[in-house]
Design goal:
It is a single chain. The protein folds into three domains: 172 residues, no CATH class; 77 residues, no CATH class; 74 residues, no CATH class. 35% of the residues lie in helices and 20% in strands. It is built from nine helices and eleven strands. The strands form three sheets. The chain has a five-stranded antiparallel β-sheet, sandwiched between helices. A three-stranded antiparallel β-sheet has the order 1-4-3, with helices on one face. It has a three-stranded antiparallel β-sheet with strand order 9-10-11. A hairpin with a 6-residue loop joins strand 5 and strand 6. The protein is flat, with a radius of gyration of 27 Å. The two termini are 48 Å apart. 21% of the residues are buried. It comes from Tanacetum cinerariifolium. This is Reverse transcriptase Ty1/copia-type domain-containing protein.
Length: 349
């Protein structure tokens, strides 16, 4: 559970570590300097804080055009993006509670660059990024000012900016590599490549080497599981892996989050798999059932799997942990077969 007060956060080592990492970025980027508190009124008037923000329709249009042209689309984001912006007014802030300079606790920080929580942040960051792109041969869109384009010998590259997230694609992969190198010259970027996975889950070790790890954001984990559960309506190939990960929604660990991310990497490799209902197929009902034995690592229960076809048309499938503890592979198979027969009767009726 996230702390609701600063005093609570300062007692949490993970939050203190995160703050120290953020303040280190402030130091690297020369975001502020320690000065004596000037005389003046508290507060500041913010003028010209508007920054262009891409509309969701523009992103869909970008992806649709990239699909039509056969582009490979990449994504990257800028680490601590707002720290790269510059502001034109004098701004002073108190030293963060719990992280004051022990030698000068009464001094304040004079802000030299944009920082998080200032109203000028988005505009300052957009100004820095757009100026950098324009000076390197890009042209800005007339209507959509978050879209940038650069042409080179008959090829071109499109850049779509959403605050600190950037998607880009080109008719020439070399232009994408050059753009990545260009961004790394000035900004600290996250990795843009996604390591592919050929299977939804590691069959040898589902939860990695340690099988535990630190706690992860429960809301993020549940939202990812929810998206995957929705997708299982047309992707039976991920059913087992998603159900295995869904069992850990109460206290998800790093190993479980890694397993969920592996499913997404698998989907990236196999985006076009789905259901196929051929017209010329017969209409006979055919069912299959199977079971492992004690495959659940936590309670050693078995898992039932099954599917039903009308000819070659897959219409129903199931992957569920059995509710009883079986004592043999034969018993586990009988439980699975019983479940399959029940589904067949429901389809027939």
């Amino acid at each position: 559970e996230e702390p609701k007060k600063i005093s609570d956060a300062l007692k949490d080592p993970s939050w203190v570590e995160a703050m120290q990492e953020e303040l280190l970025q402030f130091k690297i980027q020369n975001v502020w300097t320690l000065v004596n508190c000037p005389e003046g009124e508290e507060g500041i008037d913010n003028e010209e804080v508007f920054a262009p923000v891409v509309r969701i329709e523009a992103i869909r249009l970008f992806l649709a055009y990239a699909s039509f042209m056969g582009f490979t689309v990449y994504q990257m984001d800028v680490k601590s993006a707002f720290l790269y912006g510059t502001i034109n007014k004098e701004v002073y802030v108190m030293q963060p509670l719990g992280f004051q300079d022990p030698e000068f606790p009464a001094k304040v920080n004079k802000v030299e660059k944009a920082m998080y929580e200032l109203h000028q942040d988005p505009r300052a960051w957009y100004g820095t990024l757009s100026k950098y792109l324009l000076t390197n041969g890009f042209q800005r869109g007339t209507i959509d000012q978050t879209l940038f384009i650069r042409r080179h010998r008959g090829d071109f590259i499109l850049i779509q900016v959403y605050v600190d997230d950037i998607i880009f694609g080109s008719s020439n992969s070399q232009l994408c590599r050059e753009f990545e190198a260009l961004m790394h010259e000035k900004f600290q970027m996250s990795a843009m490549d996604v390591r592919p996975a050929n299977t939804p889950m590691d069959k040898e070790n589902q939860w990695g080497k340690d099988g535990t790890g630190k706690d992860v954001d429960i809301h993020l984990y549940r939202s990812m599981i929810g998206s995957l559960m929705y997708l299982t309506a047309s992707r039976p190939d991920i059913m087992f892996a998603v159900c295995a990960c869904a069992r850990h929604q109460v206290t998800p660990k790093e190993c479980h989050l890694h397993a969920v991310k592996r499913i997404f990497r698998y989907l990236k490799v196999h985006p076009k798999l789905g259901l196929w209902y051929p017209k010329e197929s017969p209409f006979d009902l055919v069912a299959y059932s199977n079971s492992d034995y004690g495959g659940a690592t936590q309670d050693r229960k078995s898992t039932t799997g099954g599917c039903q076809f009308l000819g070659r048309r897959l219409i129903s499938w199931k992957c569920k942990k059995q509710t009883i503890m079986v004592t043999s592979t034969t018993e586990a198979e009988y439980v699975a077969a019983t479940s399959g027969c029940g589904q067949v009767l429901r389809i027939q009726n």
